[in-house]
Amino acid sequence: MSSHTLSVLVEDRPGVLARVANLFAARGFNISSLAVGPTEEAGLSRMTVVVDVGHKPLEQVVKQLNKLINVIKVLELDANEAVERELALFKVRAHGDSRPRLMEIAEVFRAQVVDVTHGTMTVQSAGDPAKIEALRELLEDFGIVEMARTGRLALARGERGIRERVSRSPRREAAS
């Protein structure tokens, strides 16, 4: 399965998230991660959408995203040219001898223990999505009671922001 990360700058209006998500769903694409939040500019939000495309071309969806009225800009982010981060909380079973081992694993991953009860520990980790996944795999051995992940956040590397970049959508490349 091929995964692509899109950074979508949108107007902060009711219904925009639903329209964007519906566009992917209507074309049979699975969104594996979605994070939305305000930007440095009031009235605008950034969506970071990670979509599994399989063998379907993503170009058509990017073109259609660009046509949505509340979408300002769409930028496909290459993993080598972007900074990607995620936040995760893991509530893990922790009894007796497992506690020191869990704390050791958390330290190796630069994660923090943010809550402790008689039977569980909650570990918080922020970082590269691959690091989060590696931590999750190790914590499974102890028994993950609950897990919450923010979804991937991503920004292109370099000096310029999304508004100053040229979109990689075929429509805009053809116009260049």
Task: Describe the overall structure.
With 176 residues, the chain is an alpha+beta fold. The chain has 2 domains: 3-82 and 157-171, ACT domain (Alpha-Beta Plaits, 2-Layer Sandwich); 83-153, Alpha-Beta Plaits (2-Layer Sandwich), CATH 3.30.70.1150. The chain has 5 helices and 9 strands, in the order βαββαββαββαββα. The protein has helices at 16-26, 59-67, 98-108, 129-140, 170-175, and strands at residues 3-11, 30-38, 44-52, 71-77, 82-93, 112-116, 120-127, 144-149, 153-156. The strands form 2 sheets. Strands 5, 6, 7, 8 and 9 form a 5-stranded antiparallel β-sheet that branches. Strands 2-3-1-4 form a 4-stranded antiparallel β-sheet, covered by helices on one side. A hairpin with a 3-residue loop joins strand 6 and strand 7. Mean pLDDT is 89; it is low at 167-176.
Keywords:
single chain, 176 residues, alpha+beta, Alpha-Beta Plaits, 2 domains, five-stranded antiparallel sheet, four-stranded antiparallel sheet, 5 helices, 9 strands, disordered C terminus
